[in-house]
């Protein structure tokens, strides 16, 4: 969720090359927590092979849920509530009071997740067609959602007083879904610098926010015995001149993170992975977490996760999602595009992560509908990718009725057309039609927006394969009784060997090869669907 300046990119590139050339840069304190064939070097990690389960799964659902959902006011609440003049600051002032007296630590205290039923939610996700599930383990707010050994600010000690990750893991296993966790806390050091600020005007002008508080300030209060610095990770460090800049604040902290901060982050992730054994870990970081500060942290976490998976399964079944990877790093991890899709067919697996609304639950927001999600899924899969979709969860641990309808719509389409998605591999080209020409890359991110603004038409196709079957998915309902696939310019051998069917219909389809392409005649009545899948056998 961050963009890198040229200077920072060059600095990270230099570090990456040095780590690649010199091997592990691990300090005496940072060591791989599980021994095995993988060592904490790019050279060793380049031997990684993407697990077949991930390539087959294609669709996962993500619970991007934590204490920032308590106000139900959208993303980055724990940061924006400290920025005077922001909508979330104004809401916080009106609802809770001034952040010098009632900070995010106190919002955590209000969060109870009282109606959280992971089994019920997992059933909804599975019925929607998800094959893997990812739970938020911590966000930039630095709050751990398990019984963390190294972060006292966690969901067992306060707030819900429940081991949320443990409950998610148990529910996913029971439902037969692969389990993953997402980790975002590496950036708390810079993200939370705003907690040290003061109002610049008004009744509280010059009064510091609660990010300057210490353990001693909690005497007689609900958080007595806990140190706010363990949450806010400020410890009095210098504030960046870019503290209010949403993009630059990530890159230019007032002071570099301390060794204690770096090692604590490592210990927390090691604890998480060791206890809950996720098959997937999503790092909301460029390259690896804290890579620009100490490459050994991410490299050792990666090697440990892979080795632990080998010890468990006899082979490596683990997946690491992270962002902005170099070509060399893409041999080690799965590149993740946030709300984006590849420009072209990728020869290596990748993932797009997206949300139907705000990342953290927000009332009265307009969601992406099932049609938008299905179109995104089809496009991503045709390019050799997976889609990880966030369904926002309310503070109490439930999802709303609109979200349930969206999940139902996704599941209904996949129930008919899933064979063209699950277990497939890309064809020689990913698609055809007007949407190919007007997909304009987002130059800032290097990829294209996931959700297309213009509507798809029936001339837009996406292709997948499975075994000897080619699937041609028309992205909209045809206005005539036929579909023309221009990418198929000639049929091999005898046309009598070709069989074409429409998924969801038992009618036999006739076809003819023309100079323009393969023309397929459809039944007089076809079911109303978001997209229509032709299965072509005998062509490959």
Automatic annotation (TrEMBL):
InterPro entries: Fucosidase_C (IPR031919), GH (IPR017853), Glyco_hydro_29 (IPR000933), Glyco_hydro_29_N (IPR057739), Glyco_hydro_b (IPR013780). It comes from the Bacteria. One of its GO terms (cellular component) is lysosome. Its EC number is 3.2.1.51. Keywords: Glycosidase, Hydrolase, Signal. The keyword Signal applies. GO terms for biological process: fucose metabolic process; glycoside catabolic process. One of its GO terms (molecular function) is alpha-L-fucosidase activity. Residues 457-536 form the Alpha-L-fucosidase C-terminal domain. Pfam families: Alpha_L_fucos, Fucosidase_C. It is an enzyme of class 3 (hydrolase). Residues 29-419 form the Glycoside hydrolase family 29 N-terminal domain. Residues 1-28 form the signal peptide. Belongs to the glycosyl hydrolase 29 family. This is alpha-L-fucosidase. It comes from Mucilaginibacter straminoryzae.
């Amino acid at each position: 969720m961050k963009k890198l300046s040229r200077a920072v990119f060059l600095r990270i590139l230099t570090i990456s090359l040095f780590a690649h050339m010199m091997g592990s840069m691990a300090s005496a304190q940072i060591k791989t927590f599980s021994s095995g064939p993988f060592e904490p070097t790019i050279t060793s990690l380049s031997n990684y092979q993407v697990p077949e389960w991930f390539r087959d799964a294609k669709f996962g659902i993500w619970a991007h849920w934590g204490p920032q959902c308590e106000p139900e006011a959208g993303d980055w609440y724990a940061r924006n509530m400290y920025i005077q003049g922001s909508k979330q600051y104004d809401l916080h002032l009106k609802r809770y009071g001034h952040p010098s007296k009632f900070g995010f630590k106190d919002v955590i205290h209000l969060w109870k997740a009282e109606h959280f039923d992971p089994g019920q939610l997992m059933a909804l996700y599975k019925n929607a067609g998800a094959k893997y599930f990812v739970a938020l383990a911590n966000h930039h707010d630095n709050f751990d959602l398990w019984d963390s050994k190294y972060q006292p600010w966690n969901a067992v000690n306060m707030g819900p007083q429940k081991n949320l990750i443990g409950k998610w893991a148990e529910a996913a296993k029971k439902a037969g879904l692969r389990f993953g966790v997402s980790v975002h806390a590496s950036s708390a050091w810079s993200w939370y610098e705003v907690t040290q600020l003061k109002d610049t005007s008004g009744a509280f002008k010059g009064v510091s926010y609660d990010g300057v508080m210490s353990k001693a300030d909690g005497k007689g209060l609900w958080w007595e015995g806990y140190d706010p610095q363990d949450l806010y990770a400020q410890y009095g460090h210098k504030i960046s001149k870019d503290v209010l800049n949403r993009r630059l604040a990530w890159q230019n902290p007032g002071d570099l993170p301390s060794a204690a901060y770096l090692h604590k982050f490592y210990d927390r992730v090691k604890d998480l992975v060791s206890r809950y054994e996720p098959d997937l870990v999503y790092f909301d970081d460029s390259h690896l977490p804290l890579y620009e500060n100490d490459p050994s942290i991410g490299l050792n976490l990666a090697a440990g996760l892979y080795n632990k998976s080998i010890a468990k399964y006899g082979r490596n079944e683990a997946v690491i999602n992270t962002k902005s990877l170099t070509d060399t790093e893409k041999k080690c991890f799965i590149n993740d595009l946030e709300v984006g899709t590849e420009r072209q067919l990728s020869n290596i697996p990748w993932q797009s992560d997206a949300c139907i609304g705000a990342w953290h639950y927000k009332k009265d927001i307009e969601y992406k509908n099932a049609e938008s999600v299905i179109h995104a899924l089809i496009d991503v899969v045709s390019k050799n990718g997976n889609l990880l979709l966030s369904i926002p969860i309310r503070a109490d641990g439930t999802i709303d009725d609109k979200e349930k309808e969206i999940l139902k719509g996704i599941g209904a389409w996949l129930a008919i057309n899933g064979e063209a998605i699950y277990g497939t591999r890309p064809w020689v080209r990913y698609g055809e039609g007007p949407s190919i020409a007007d997909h304009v890359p987002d130059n800032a991110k290097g990829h294209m927006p996931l959700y297309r603004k213009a509507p798809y038409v029936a001339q837009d196709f996406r292709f997948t394969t499975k075994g000897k079957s080619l699937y041609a998915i028309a992205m909209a309902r045809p206005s005539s009784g036929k579909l023309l696939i221009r990418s198929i310019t000639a049929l091999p051998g005898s046309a009598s060997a070709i069989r074409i069917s429409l998924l969801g219909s038992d009618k036999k389809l006739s076809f003819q090869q023309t100079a323009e392409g393969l023309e397929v005649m459809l039944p007089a009545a076809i079911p109303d669907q978001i997209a229509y899948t032709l299965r072509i056998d005998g062509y490959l």
